[in-house]
């Protein structure tokens, strides 16, 4: 496995690997170290993508609320631009659940002629580059994550109030959940910013004004250019990222052209903050 590093700190294109028979332990180790990996010229379909995920970790349902791509593949979440599948807000996947995914594996299915790149931000690098007084401020904070703004209507109207099974329970409502603002990675012990504009509603125990100011500071810092890698998709591409140490954003710059991506997620754990 040969890695072509995309920045001094994170992100790599992996060469010389066929994901159909890759060493899962080696990929898992590289994922934790580099946070987001890109594999070119892969020949995966939904079945092979699911099998890959099962070799790397334990799969979740496609999404807590949204159904799978079809009845045969309940683990595959289809992001289709013709059905509001844009992901054009900075976010970390499914942080509105008690146990967000460990990671995600995304496959390009239909790409526009141009545009549709995806950007990833390194939440650990962003934390490390905060000033010491700001780190001290945010280390002990807790934030609320709420999926209702994005998926509440979908759950109620399109699923009739019955979502998918997640952590052994069928999702019938999206209760706001608290997570630490700074998450300690369970495998490396590194700290990373664990709030995102997509799902974080507010910080607990401070005023609304203070919450907004702190979140805006963290969002602006997280998405500084030096914390970001950008991937230009082409047919056969597969991306894999550690959801515990990154956020991402898909560019919505391709007009009326269609963009379809298929994603699976790996079961994670309950986020732990700074003790």
UniProtKB/TrEMBL annotation:
The keyword Ribosomal protein does not apply. It comes from the Bacteria. One of its GO terms (molecular function) is dioxygenase activity. Pfam families: TauD (PF02668). Keywords: Dioxygenase, Iron, Metal-binding, Oxidoreductase. Residues 5-265 form the TauD/TfdA-like domain. The keyword Oxidoreductase applies. Belongs to the TfdA dioxygenase family. This is TauD/TfdA family dioxygenase. It comes from Paractinoplanes bogorensis.
């Amino acid at each position: 496995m040969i890695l072509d590093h995309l920045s001094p700190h994170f992100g790599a294109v992996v060469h010389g690997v066929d994901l159909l028979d890759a060493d899962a332990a080696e990929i898992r180790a590289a994922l934790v170290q580099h946070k987001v990996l890109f594999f070119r010229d892969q020949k995966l379909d939904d079945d092979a993508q699911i099998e890959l995920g099962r070799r790397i970790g334990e799969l979740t349902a496609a999404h807590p609320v949204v159904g799978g791509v079809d009845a045969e593949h309940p683990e595959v979440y289809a992001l289709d631009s013709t059905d509001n599948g844009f992901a054009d807000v900075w976010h970390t996947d499914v942080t509105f659940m008690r146990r967000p995914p460990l990671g995600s594996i995304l496959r390009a299915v239909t790409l526009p002629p141009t545009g549709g790149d995806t950007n990833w931000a390194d939440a650990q690098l962003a934390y490390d580059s905060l000033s010491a007084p700001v780190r001290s401020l945010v280390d002990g904070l807790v934030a609320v994550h709420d999926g209702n703004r994005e998926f509440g209507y979908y759950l109620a109207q399109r699923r009739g109030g019955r979502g998918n099974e997640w952590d052994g329970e069928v999702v019938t409502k999206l209760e706001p959940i608290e997570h630490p603002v700074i998450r300690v990675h369970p495998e490396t012990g590194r700290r990373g910013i664990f709030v995102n504009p997509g799902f974080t509603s507010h910080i607990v125990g401070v005023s609304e004004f203070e919450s907004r100011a702190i979140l805006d500071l963290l969002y602006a810092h997280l998405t500084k250019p030096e914390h970001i890698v950008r991937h230009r998709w082409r047919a056969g591409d597969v991306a894999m990222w550690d959801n515990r140490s990154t956020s991402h954003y898909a560019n919505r710059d391709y007009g009326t052209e269609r963009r379809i991506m298929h994603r699976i997620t790996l079961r994670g754990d309950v986020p732990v903050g700074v003790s």
